[in-house]
TrEMBL record:
Keyword annotations: Hydrolase, Membrane, Metal-binding, Transmembrane, Transmembrane helix
Name used for this protein in its record: Metallophosphoesterase
The keyword Calcium belongs to this UniProt entry's keyword annotation: no
One Pfam family of this chain: Metallophos
TM regions (residue ranges): 7-26, 32-52, 64-85
All copies of domain Calcineurin-like phosphoesterase, residue ranges: 156-336
Gene3D superfamilies: 3.60.21.10
Length: 394
């Protein structure tokens, strides 16, 4: 959305909140009234700043102002939703009173409900901030795979997704994630897209701790839509420079059994794992050569290697992945909804919002994300570092 219409829209929504709340507070909440006026003005003025800084030719905006703008965005979201809830509740109460003839002390209810909105919005935003800024907890998930070779039983994958390194997620945040992953001792690390929100020049130093990720078979990355917003080709080069393997509609074969200990070539192949990765579902809109293709990602894969895992940023890659013959797809993108009411819109675009689901013969695991996008705020959708363990289906 162009910046000027966005500024106009958000300003009008702030005006709506003010018109609905401020008159009701004028009588008994005079001190709080002035504070709320200032908060609404600051929110309306700073919310566009993180978006304005991304425009080509725009004057550089300091990270401090971006922080304020993103905090305002989270607070405004709760203010707007709670104002709508208040108006809906008052309308229902008015209708019920009109029908039943109940007497309601309207000035008292208007004042108290108006005062409750900023108090609740601020409390929710503070809780959401703490949830977003803490280091993600480790979520343990067992994935039952039919006919899983014995050598792959217990194979572990540490999944990171949607970290969104940018104005509020910096080097220290990333280092804490790397340290947590390394403590897991996973067989491989998978990063399923939306790693960055900015250019390589801006974020190179902050992304650098990822080169310290340790896993037996290495770290594999696929692109998300935000990589394409930020310059995917430059980021692919930078991630490869850090020693991460970026999979662009291609695969690698991981050998989990010692070749010396195998009796036949068949044993070697059966104990191997195909790990494939596709470009983001929408990548074709940015580069026709990056059209996402799960089938192409398997091109040349040994037919004797039956266990196949796909890294795909968006869950909606799953139907094509299932048709291509994968047993497991690891995705992100949804953030689990991150906070209300945005969680209500995710199912309109994606087949899965979070967790482990079955699609035909394939499992799909959708991470709620290891960081966050936009406002530093998570409510009801905690961030996660996922440790997936392949087990034999009983």
């Amino acid at each position: 959305m162009p910046l000027r219409p966005l500024i106009l829209l958000t300003t009008l929504l702030h005006v709506y909140i003010g018109l609905r709340l401020l008159p009701a507070l004028a009588g008994n909440w005079t001190g709080w009234l002035a504070l709320l006026v200032v908060a609404l003005v600051v929110s309306a003025a700073t919310m566009p700043l993180p978006f304005a800084s991304r425009r080509s030719g725009a004057r550089r905006i300091g990270d401090g102002w971006k922080w304020i703008g993103l905090l305002s965005m989270g607070w405004f979201s709760s203010m707007f939703v709670l104002t709508i809830v208040r108006d809906t509740g008052l309308l229902i109460a008015w209708g019920a009173a009109s029908i039943s003839g109940w007497g309601i002390d309207w000035p008292r209810w208007l004042s108290k409900s108006a005062g409750a909105v900023p108090v609740l919005a601020t409390a929710i935003s503070m809780i959401g901030f703490l949830n977003a800024r803490r280091t993600a907890n480790v979520v343990h998930v067992e994935v039952p795979i039919r006919d899983l070779p014995a050598a792959l039983d217990g194979f572990t994958i540490a999944q990171l997704s949607d970290i969104h390194v940018g104005p509020t997620i910096r080097r220290g945040y990333i280092q804490r994630i790397v340290d947590a992953v390394n403590r897991l001792g996973a067989d491989m690390v998978a990063i399923t897209g939306d790693l960055v929100d900015g250019t390589v020049t801006e974020l190179r130093d902050h992304i650098a701790p990822l080169q310290g990720l340790r896993a037996k078979h290495g770290t594999f990355v696929v692109t998300g839509n935000h990589e394409y917003y930020a310059g995917a080709h430059a980021w692919i080069d930078e991630l490869r420079r850090l020693g991460l393997r970026v999979l662009l509609n291609e695969h690698v074969v991981l050998q989990t059994r010692s070749v010396k200990g195998a009796q036949t070539d068949e044993e070697v192949l059966e104990s191997a794992l195909v790990v494939a990765g596709v470009t983001d579902y929408t990548a074709v809109h940015f580069d026709a050569a990056h059209a996402s293709d799960p089938q192409l990602a398997l091109d040349g894969a040994p037919p004797m290697v039956h266990t196949r895992v796909l890294l795909a940023h968006q869950p909606r890659s799953a139907p094509a992945a299932a048709e291509a013959g994968f047993q497991l797809q690891l995705s992100g993108h949804t953030h689990g909804g991150q906070f209300f009411p945005w969680n209500l819109f995710v199912p309109l675009q994606q087949p899965f919002t979070a967790g482990l689901h079955r699609l035909q013969k394939m499992w799909v695991y959708t991470s709620r994300g290891t960081g966050y996008w936009g406002p530093p705020k998570r409510i009801g959708a905690p961030s996660e570092i996922t440790l997936l363990r392949l087990v034999t289906e009983s």
